[in-house]
Amino acid sequence: MRAARRTTLTGLALVTAAAGLAALPPDAEAASPAPTLTTAAPDIDVARVQAHLTELNAIASRNGGNRRSTGQGYRDSVAYVKGRLQAAGYTVTEQACTSGCTRGAGPNLIAEWPYGDASKVYMFGAHLDGVSAGPGINDNGSGSATLLEVALKLAETRPSMAARVRFGWWTDEEQGLNGSDFYVRSLTSAQRSAIKAYYNFDMVASPNGGYFINHINSTAAAPMKAYWDSLSLRPEENTEGAGRSDDYSFEAYGIPTSGYAMGASARKTSTQAAKWGGTAGAAYDRCYHSSCDTTTNINATGLNRSADGVAYTLWQQAVSATALNRAPR
Ligand code: TRP
Ligand code: ZN
């Protein structure tokens, strides 16, 4: 679903990208006329993201009510994401986690869009496993489904690429960030230094959530923040989630990281409720790691704003700002 003021941001951002400027100027709204280039970031249809969540919830229901890394619910989740990516033309790799993961954990899933400068990789990741207690729809169907839909939209749009985009769906996060840690450890140092930024999406649709960004003032975070700033959301640092999700695996190797999150079991402050709405004194997600983390535990407005900001960031970082031609078919 298209969020308000999106067109203006996209057009202006293209101007700043072309001019080599890092951020939107304060008078962004006053700039005119907006250019019409093919690199405008697409709107992500939140209904399609929610359709992926419905599938993940059904997968859990068929498999004892969860998608934990060692179970069939996880393997079926991998098969679902993989099938949708392959149908869109991606080459998808299952990476078995052969050290550091829980015995019997399923694989990581990696998909690269094979266009653009391979020495500049922008990576987008989410953990695909859940806990044993429930279906894991906000944690972390939300990040997983968001990335799947953005990947499908990239394949559908086929813009001219300036850099590589790689997606990762991680196994065994809930037992200690194990799948992503294995992935980063398995890279050569040259492969690690090719990753210019890693963006993590874990719990991006918390029902009583806030708008949190990892390393909010970093260079990597700039497009993530610019998008949410354009919606006047006044995002804050993701202090609750610091070091608790897969971005930490990349951070530990010195790779710049950012990402969106809407919060877990910590409680919303009155200041936050005043600016974002919701209930002060209540958890961002009262179903965190519990059986009620189902499709009803999703904030569709937050999910939409997250998904559109992921697409915005991907386009800003990796889509060519000047070329009007498309990737070869
Ligand atoms: N959701 C993560 C997990 O348990 C970790 C986490 C805790 C988190 N608090 C958070 C992530 C806040 C984002 C924001 O798998
Ligand atoms: Zn999580």
From TrEMBL:
Residue span of the signal peptide, if any?
Answer: 1-30
- Kindly give the InterPro entries that the UniProt entry links to this protein: M28_fam (IPR045175), M28_SGAP-like (IPR041756), Peptidase_M28 (IPR007484), TAT_signal (IPR006311)
Tell me the PROSITE patterns matching this sequence: TAT
- Does the keyword field hold Protease? yes
State the family it belongs to.
Belongs to the peptidase M28 family. M28A subfamily.
List the SUPFAM superfamilies.
Answer: Zn-dependent exopeptidases
Alphabetized Pfam families for the sequence: Peptidase_M28
Does this UniProt record's set of keywords contain Hydrolase? yes
Q: What is this protein called?
A: Peptidase M28 domain-containing protein
| Gene3D superfamilies, sorted | Zn peptidases
Task: Provide this UniProt record's keywords sorted from A to Z.
Answer: Hydrolase, Metal-binding, Protease, Signal, Zinc
This protein's species is: Streptomyces canarius
What region holds the Peptidase M28 domain? 108-313
